[in-house]
Design a protein that fits this description.
The complex is a heterotrimer of chains A (355), B (205) and C (618). With 355 residues, chain A is of the alpha+beta class. Chain A contains 10 helices and 12 strands. Chain C is mainly α. Classes of the chains: A alpha+beta (355), B mainly alpha (205), C mainly alpha (618). Chain A: Its cofactor is Cu cation.
Amino acid sequence: MKGWMGKVRTLLLLSVLPLILSGCGKENLTAFLPKGYGAQVSLDLIVISLIVMIVVFIVVMIIYTMVLVRYRQKKGQENFIPKQTEGNKALEIIWTVIPIILLVIIAVPTVAATFNLADESDKDDSLNVNVTANQYWWHFNYQGEEIQTSQDLYIPTGEKIYLNMISSDVLHSFWVPSIAGKMDTNPENENTMYIEAYEEGVYWGKCAELCGPSHSLMDFKIVAVSPDEFDQWVEDMQNVDPEAEPETASAQEGQELFENSCISCHAIGSSPTALAPNLTNFGDRTAIAGVIDYNKENLVEWILDPEKLKEGNKMSSAPYLVNDELNEEEANQIADYLLQLKPSEITPESANNNE
Amino acid sequence: MSHDTLNPEVMPSEPEKATLEGKNKFLGFWFFLGGETVLFASLFGTYLALRNSNNGGPTSEELFGLELVFVMTMLLLTSSLTSVYAMYHMKNNDFRKMQIWLGITVALGLGFLGFEIYEFYHYIHHYEFTFRSSAFGSAFYTLVGFHGGHVLFGLLWIITIMARNAKRGLNLYNAPKFYIASLYWHFIDVVWVFIFTVVYLMGVI
Amino acid sequence: MSTTTAQRTGFGAVLWDYLTTVDHKKIGILYLISGGFFFLIGGLEAMAIRIQLIKPENDFVSAGFYNEILTMHGTTMIFLAAMPLIFALMNAVVPLQIGARDVAFPFLNSLGFWLFLFGGLLLNASWFLGGAPDAGWTAYAPLSTTSPGHGVDFYILGLQISGAGTLIAGINFLVTIVNMRAPGMTYMRLPLFTWTTFVVSALILFAFPALTVGLFLLMFDRLFGSGFFNANMGGNSVIWEHLFWIFGHPEVYILILPAFGVFSEVLPTFAKKRLFGYTAMVFATVLIGFLGFMVWAHHMFTVGLGPAANSIFAVATMAIAVPTGIKIFNWLFTLWGGNIQINSAMLWSLSFIPTFTLGGMTGVMLAAAAADYQYHDTYFVVAHFHYVIVGGVVFGIFAGLHYWWPRMFGKILNETLGKITFWTFFIGFHLTFFIQHFLGLMGMPRRYWVFLADQGLDTGNFISTIGAFLMAVGTIVFLINVIVTTSKGEKVSGDPWDGRTLEWAIPNPTPHYNFKQTPLVRGLDALWVEKTEGRKEMTPAEPLDDIHMPNASILPFIMSLGLFIAGFGFIYQIDNISWLLAVFIGMGITLGAMFVRSVKDDLGHHIHKEDLDKGAGL
């Protein structure tokens, strides 16, 4: 099996080449340039089925063109009545049997790949991350590591990571096209899938199941770093002091404000609180609220009016907004506090630099 | 319109299928019952998926007693039999006997419905087991309630056509109406047999 | 005897005639008008979607409103446009094709239409009453059970009412085709369009009750506090997905099979050749219908059903490609050796073959479960189902309308305008949707209000929106065509295409009673058989006699109106208990009308044979 899969892969490279040249989407987002095991398996299957289907299409189009060229009504033949053929057994058998054979060619690797991607035999020996999808953010709880993050999922390259996924509200779907196909998160049962990133990088993740007004703004990232870097990140994250005092006065003010209000939903450090995104390493995020450009100005705007940027999100009904308790200066201070939360040297930068 | 074609000298042996309209009704109703089968199959599927989701409330073992349900089953099975008698008399063109047997069918159906209402009342007041207490409660009341609704509709239907035709007797226009009403009644009975098995027997054992 | 149909005195009389008609030809026209109306509304919604997506991070509409638009676009196009337009063709043609004077249940036929219309109106009333449904046409729980406002309630009640109408129409056509065929019209002589109607009606019968149950459960959860899909009460949201797709997958075959039927009529007529492999075509139709019930879970590959279930449903889905392939090749070989005349109806039919082949190709690709993990819920899927639904169903409806327009309205649609419509729509269609295959795999999920800048999705979306405008132009030209043809078109004979099947054996305009004498069918393509033997007309199967016809009735309209009123009651009783009054009034009207129907004899009327030649009942 592996042998001819390899050949298919070469073939795939050849056929994908023009697409790369003509632009087949943004690297680390598109499913055309797989950077992980699941995406590779899916793309192999896509290519096999596409090749078979293109063969069929070409046959159909050849007959179609011949028919239209040869049998279109010619001048003076308006009253010509052609022979009324009832059918042709041999032909009909041919176009029943050949498609069946072609489908078997697709079906066998399909079944193999489907079972392959559902394999859970080494789940207990691998890193497990519990994923919780929420309107409209993602929460990641590293099993047995006392580490929690939101929005950015750090993983080591070259290892299988098992994701145990559930939803806290409506259906969502976890999709990182460059790494693996998607899996739904349901509110009543846990779904498991594994991912494996081949290369370091920051990969775009999307929610792929309609989940409300801000469905299209529920992006997240997978930050794949080398195993060594990952180990260091784990150590750094485990050693976070949630009460560490910031350096600037403004950030200190912000910390106090944060601890009087925001902390009831947002956690810093490992904490069971997961009503809202965990902000332990907020300073290393690549985006605010998943999709907004990462800078202080946007962060202040977000704190003051989240509804404007992400319709229907739950922060809009936070008490500080309902009671109008926060002024712009205070929001600035909170922003200063959040932006300096950089507990680890391993950041999305480290994933990008190694390329 | 000549009524003679609908009141022939000698009634045919199958008056329900003697006219094109009758044939259409007969076939159309069988198709309708096919659709109803899918409807109940979907409800059964939902019930089977949720029957253990009692959410801390009473379970089926705690709730169901087979004695009452057994009596209800007997009532409904017997009513199906009496409706067969009624159709037998229809084919013999004996309108009076048909009406009597249909009347007995209705009485038995009313008895069934009374017991069902008592059963629901019992669950709600003694166990506080309601439509809203759990997914199991929702599924139970929906499945059994849909059946109960069908029984009620069937009773109203049979009573209506009995009353409507009481004075004018049987003809080829109303024979198909009686016949498909009895078909409907049989269908309700068959569904109940499945409810008895799937909900009550499987719920207790 | 009733002669209301003969009096055309003023608008009021015509209106009353159409409100009460039980004539399948007029009901077909009613379906056409209302289906066309909803098609335009759905098209406007589509344009709003494409304008919103013309550039990254656009704010043409707000996020919440966008979800309402996309939900209503899908729901409207499937339930309120495609289905009724197909019913329009079925009503206009099927009784004629089998040599019947009407359908088996004319009263129910009318009831089915009015239920559909009132259901559609109820659903669309949501726009003016606080917002349309916003959980997608699939209404997945718990998003649908927790969606605020009444939008989803309108979805539930609207579809429940119009779904009941569809079910009734399905049963009606089943019985019509079984019981009302003319002498000699055996099953293996049925025209393919009638065959597809038959199979589709069976699909409706066995698929719609699953939706009925699903909608009831959703309604109970939203309005009466049950917990079917509520995880906190032990419920399970995946049940909704199963129920929806047990209905939903057959539904897409309900849409496409009649289109297959249309092409199987149009291609032989204009190639002047009988359908190649008729038996295989019938067999393939039945097989597709049968397999259509076995594959619903391929919409749920990413739900987490496990690899065994996914593999079984993947292979079963691929199997459908075989009968579909048989059909494609049979159409090609119908054309092979023919004398192909190309007009508007033929353009739609010919362009269907490559378009649908593309849609079928992506269908097989989607069936490969492990590959679907990438396609699922992306624009790849959006592209696929528009290729089959627009490229198959809408092309089929256009072909059917051009082909049967002279049968329905006595005039041929303008050819020049027809060709302009075709080319703008066809090019626009491929521009819109071909690129979307790539957008999907490039990382664009479906139902996205915005796509972000700098993600390589700008050009594709821009091209797609341009294509949508071309499709809109094509549609507008078609409307102009209808107006021009109606006002200026010339009346044609009853058989303008040199047709092959029974519906062309009738004079123009079609008499109220269709066939003066029931025809005797002596082979497949009944009229063609007579033509090859030098006759111009069908051989009658009965002597000239009085014709029994059903009476018109306003009751179907009243019954549907009652449910419409009750629908509002159900929706608003949760806000204010006094709205239950509307439920009682509405249900009272409906049940009262049913009671009247039940106790009042309706024996129909006769058209006397002496009056037939005078054209009575036209």
